[in-house]
Amino acid sequence: MRTTANDPGRAALLARRARAEVNRLTARATGVAERGRRWAEAQDPATRIGVGTHWVRRYRQADGQLYAVLLAAYFFLTVLPVTIVQATYVSGNPDAFANRIAHRLELTGPPAQFLNSVLVGAGKDKLIAVIVAIANIAIFGLGFGRVLQLAHSRIWGIELRNTFADQGRYLVVLLALMWLTIVWILQIRYLHGIPTWAGWALDVAWLALLTAYFVWAPRLLLHRRVGVADLLPGAVITVAGLAALHVAASFILRRWLVSYSSTYGGLGIVMAILFWLIAAATVMMFAAALSPAVAAHRAAVRAGAAGSANGLPGGAG
Fold first, then answer.
1. Measured distance CA(315)–CA(303) in Å, rounded
2. How far is residue 311's CA from residue 261's CA, in Å, rounded to a whole number?
3. Neighbour-count burial of 298, counting CB atoms closer than 10 A to its CB (0-12 exposed, 13-18 middle, 19+ buried)
4. What is the predicted pLDDT for the residue at 315?
5. How many CB atoms lie within 10 A of CB 316?
6. Is the distance from CB of 68 to CB of 282 less than 8 angstroms?
7. At the N or C end, where does the chain have fewer CB atoms within 10 A?
8. CB neighbours of 81 closer than 8 A, spacing ≥ 6?
9. For residue range 210-228, what is the model confidence (pLDDT) as tens digits?
10. What range defines the domain where residue 198 resides?
C-alpha cells in the first residue's frame, strides 16, 4: 500500500525533473547559439573568417532557401516547358529531349520509360505544347525575375521601389535565359561529334557566358546599384557550383530518378527533376550571398589601408 500511495508522487517528481532538464538543455543550447551569433557578428570583415561568417549570415538573413524553392518552381513552370518545345522543333523528334537526358544519365528500363512518358508527353502534340509554354510564360514568366530581384535585394540589403519598368526587366532576364537554352539545344543538335579540343573550347565559352549572365541579371534587377566587380565573385561561384552539379548528375540525379520512379512512377520523375532544380537554385542563392561578403571585405581592407596611410592603427578614425 505504501508503494502504491507513493507512485503518483514519484511520477510527478520525475516529470518535474524531466521538464527541468529539458529547460536546462534548451537554455544551454540557446546560449551556445547566441554566443555563436555574437562571435560571427564580431568577426572582422577584413579577415577570411569574417568573409565566411558574413557570407553565411547574408544567406540566412535573406531566406536564401525560400527563394531557391521559388526560383526552382518558376523555372519548372516556364523555362522547362519551353526547352522541351524548343528541342522538339529543332530536332523534329518529340523523343529527342527525353532521349538526351536518358543517355546522359545512362537510364534504362522503367526509369527511362517513365522519363520518356513525362517529357515526351509534352512534345508529341506540338501545337498544344506551344500553347502551354506560352500560357505558362504569360502567367508565371515574370515571377522568375521578380523572385530573383527580391532575393538579390535582400542579400545586398537594398530597398527597391517596384516600378513598371521592372516588368520589362523581369521579361528580359527570362528571355535571356531562354535564349541560352535554345543555344544549348542547337549546340547539341548540330555540333555533336566535334573534336575534343573544340568541345573544351565550347565548355570554356559556356562558363564565360553563364558568368556574364549571372553578373548582368542581378545588376539589371538591382537597378545598376551594384557594380560588376562586386557581383563577379558570386557569379563565378554560381557557375562553378552549377558545373559541379552537372558532373554530379550522373551519380546523384540518376539515383534520384531511379529511386523515386520505382516508388511513385511518373510522378517520381517530376519530383526528382524538381528537387534537382531546387538544388541548383540553392547553389545560386548561396553563391550570390558571397558577393556582399567580398564587397565588405574589400571595403574593410581599403579602410585599413587608408587608416595606415594616415598613421592610424587598424584604419581607425
1. 6
2. 67
3. middle
4. 43
5. 9
6. yes
7. N
8. 122, 129, 132, 133, 136
9. 999 999 999 999 999 999 9
10. 61-292
